[in-house]
Design goal:
Strand content: under 5%
Distance between the termini: 92 Å
Length: 110
C-alpha cells in the first residue's frame, strides 16, 4: 500500500494522499534538523570534580573473645510407664475335620 501512495496516479498526476504523506515527512525532517541546530553540539563528558581517596591500613589486634555459650538446660527425666500384664485364656477347641470331595474330570476326547 505504501508503494501505491508514492507513485503517481494515472497519467502522471500525484494524488492528494501522496502529497500529504510527502509534506508530513518533510515537516518531520525539518523539525528534527532545527532541534539539532538549536541545541548545538553537546560535550561527551562533563567536567567532574576529583574525589579524594585515602586507603585505610589494616590494624592487627587480638581477635575478640568468643561469646560465652548459653547454659545447657537441665535434662528432664520422665518416669517409666508401667503397664499391667493381661493374661487372656483362649480355649483350644478341636476344629471339626475338613473333608474335601474330589470328582474326577471326564476323559478328553481322542
Amino acid at each position: 500500500m505504501a508503494s501505491q501512495l508514492l507513485q503517481p496516479a494515472g497519467r502522471g498526476k500525484w494524488t492528494s494522499r501522496t502529497t500529504a504523506v510527502a509534506a508530513i515527512t518533510v515537516g518531520h525532517i525539518a523539525v528534527i534538523a532545527l532541534a539539532l541546530l538549536v541545541r548545538g553540539p553537546q560535550p561527551d563528558v562533563e567536567h567532574v570534580e576529583p574525589i579524594m581517596v585515602s586507603l585505610l591500613t589494616e590494624q592487627r589486634s587480638e581477635p575478640p573473645p568468643a561469646p560465652p555459650q548459653p547454659p545447657r538446660p537441665e535434662e528432664i527425666v520422665l518416669p517409666q510407664a508401667v503397664l499391667p500384664l493381661i493374661n487372656i485364656d483362649v480355649p483350644q477347641e478341636a476344629a471339626p475335620p475338613i473333608t474335601v470331595a474330589v470328582t474326577p474330570s471326564p476323559p478328553a476326547p481322542p
